[in-house]
Each structure stands twice: as structure tokens, then as C-alpha cells.
Specification:
Strand content of chain B: over 45%
Largest interface: A-B, 24 and 30 residues
Largest sheet of chain B: 7 strands, mixed
Number of strands of chain B: 11
Oligomer: heterodimer
Helix content of chain B: under 10%
Largest sheet of chain A: 6 strands, mixed
Radius of gyration of chain B: 13 Å
Shape of chain A: globular
Structural class of chain B: mainly beta
Number of helices of chain B: 0
Helix content of chain A: under 10%
Chain lengths: 115, 114
């Protein structure tokens, strides 16, 4: 069974500092991996996705993530945090399971940006 | 603009009452999903439907029911059998042929049981 682990339920960074949100996955087959962002009382919005085309994936709002198969990781980074980046971030893994595309989410990481 | 509309945004219910959450999409997507979100627990799958008139239980289906009579609509009923229904509920959809599993989400419905 696939699973996703996000290290750190809360992360605080200063405005302008590097953002690093960690995600490790387990999957028995090559996975598809995603990062979603959620602002308070809203739905999830796709930030970026890995579909095996390239290991370094660029997304919206200056975020990127690198797929490292040897480490089973898909960490999310942004060089310089902005106040508007404060939100909750979810890592997710998708693969075929029981005849349908099963998506499993991590427990989320809340990012706080300090002025 | 295409998207997923969930209603109501906020809902209050007395214990013992059933309540139905609406989810409508105009993306022409075949698959639709209902997730429950609780603080610190991520998203947990309640039900999913891959085509009209067909749906399957997810990981936490007890106390919930769904129907899929139209492609555009996938309402969720939270029944009185659900022991702890207070949560944020998210509806999502996926396009046919999207083998990556990318999901599109609605804005969510927050249910509070008084």
C-alpha cells in the first residue's frame, strides 16, 4: 500500500528565507507525485506534479520539487518565502490500485512566514 | 469558467439529523470523489465514483451515502449514523484519461454538529 509522510506539521520561516517542506513516499510501483496548497477554508490547488518526465519539477508561485528515487523523497522548495506563501501544503502520491487511480495524501504541513 | 461548486459553504446540524452536501462540476470529468479533512489528519477518502450510476466506498464510508445519477453531480449525505461528523468536506474530480491522478477540488463545505 502506498503512503506519504510529511515531516513537520508546522514550519516557520522568515520572509525572504528558503522554504523547504519534506515529503517521503512509499509505493510499490513508480508513482505520480503531487504537491497541493490549501488556504484557510478553501479547497486544494495543485502546485506541481511529477509524472516521470523530469526529476526536477517547477510549479506555480516559484515553487519546485525534486524527485529522488533513491531517497523516496519529493521535497518542496522555494528560494525566497513571501508572506502570501503562508498556507497548508499537502504531498500526495497516486497509483493504480484495485482498478482505479488511488490518491493518498500526507497529513499536511502548515507554513508560517514571519515578517 | 469550468470548476467544481460545493454548497453550502457552512452548515450546522443538530445531532440525529441527516444532511446532504452538494457537489456539481462542469469540467466534463468522469471520476468524482469525496474527502473528509480533520486537523492534522490530511484528507481521507469517503466515496468515489468513476462513472454515472456507479460508486465505491473509500476508507471511511461508514455513516455516509452518495448517489451519482448525473455526470455533473455527486451529492454526499452525512447520516445520523456518522459518529463524529463535524469536519471539512472536500469534493474533487478527475478527467477521463488522466492516468496521473491529478485532482481538481471544490472550495469545501464545513459541517458543524451542535
Amino acid at each position: 500500500a502506498q503512503s506519504v509522510t510529511q515531516l513537520g506539521s508546522h514550519v516557520s520561516v522568515s520572509e525572504g528565507a528558503l522554504v523547504l517542506l519534506r515529503c517521503n513516499y512509499s509505493s510499490s510501483v513508480p508513482p505520480y507525485l503531487f504537491w497541493y496548497v490549501q488556504y484557510p477554508n478553501q479547497g486544494l490547488q495543485l502546485l506541481l506534479k511529477y509524472t516521470s518526465a523530469a526529476t526536477l519539477v517547477k510549479g506555480i508561485n516559484g515553487f519546485e520539487a525534486e524527485f529522488k528515487k533513491s531517497e523516496t523523497s519529493f521535497h518542496l522548495t522555494k528560494p525566497s518565502a513571501h508572506m502570501s506563501d503562508a498556507a497548508e501544503y499537502f504531498c500526495a502520491v497516486s497509483d493504480q490500485s484495485g482498478g482505479y487511480q488511488k490518491v493518498t495524501f500526507g497529513t499536511g504541513t502548515k507554513l508560517q512566514v514571519i515578517p | 469558467d469550468g470548476g467544481i461548486t460545493q454548497s453550502p459553504k457552512y452548515l450546522f446540524r443538530k445531532e440525529g439529523q441527516n444532511v446532504t452536501l452538494s457537489c456539481e462540476q462542469n469540467l466534463n470529468h468522469d471520476a468524482m470523489y469525496w474527502y473528509r479533512q480533520d486537523p492534522g489528519q490530511g484528507l481521507r477518502l469517503i466515496y468515489y465514483s468513476q462513472i454515472v450510476n456507479d460508486f465505491q466506498k473509500g476508507d471511511i464510508a461508514e455513516g455516509y451515502s452518495v448517489s451519482r445519477e448525473k455526470k455533473e453531480s455527486f451529492p454526499l449525505t452525512v447520516t445520523s449514523a456518522q459518529k463524529n461528523p463535524t469536519a471539512f468536506y472536500l469534493c474533487a474530480s478527475r478527467a477521463r484519461g488522466s492516468d496521473t491522478g491529478e485532482l481538481f477540488f471544490g472550495e469545501g463545505s464545513r459541517l458543524t454538529v451542535l
